[in-house]
Specification:
single chain, rod-shaped, mainly alpha, about 100 residues, about 80% helix
Length: about 100
C-alpha cells in the first residue's frame, strides 16, 4: 500500500472535498433562490419583446427624438440579456444533468 492509498490519505482527501463543498453551498443556495426569483421577470421581458408591443413602443419613442431613452429601447441590451440568461440556463441544466447521470453521484 502506498501512502496515497492509505486510509489516512483517502480520509484527508475526503475532508478537503467536504470543506470545498461546504464552502460553496451557501453560494449555490443563493444562486438557486435568485434564479427562481428572476424567472417571472425574464418571462415578462421576453413576452414584451416577442409579443410585438416592444417594437410598437420603440417606434413611438424613437419618433419622439428624445435623446434620454432607456436602454431597453435599443435592440441589443434586452436581447443580449435574454440570450445570456438562456445560455446560462442551458449551462446550469447541462451541469445538473451531468451530475444526475454520473453513477458516482
Amino acid at each position: 500500500m502506498t501512502a496515497q492509498d492509505s486510509p489516512t490519505s483517502r480520509m484527508a482527501a475526503a475532508q478537503s472535498d467536504l470543506e470545498a463543498l461546504e464552502a460553496v453551498l451557501p453560494d449555490l443556495r443563493r444562486l438557486a433562490e435568485r434564479y427562481a426569483a428572476i424567472a417571472p421577470t425574464v418571462a415578462r421581458l421576453a413576452g414584451y419583446l416577442h409579443g410585438g408591443q416592444w417594437l410598437e413602443d420603440r417606434e413611438i419613442l424613437l419618433a419622439e427624438n428624445d435623446t434620454d431613452q432607456p436602454s431597453v429601447v435599443g435592440e441589443d441590451p434586452a436581447w443580449n440579456a435574454l440570450e445570456d440568461h438562456h445560455n446560462l440556463s442551458q449551462h446550469l441544466l447541462r451541469t445538473a444533468a451531468a451530475y444526475f447521470t454520473d453513477p458516482r453521484a
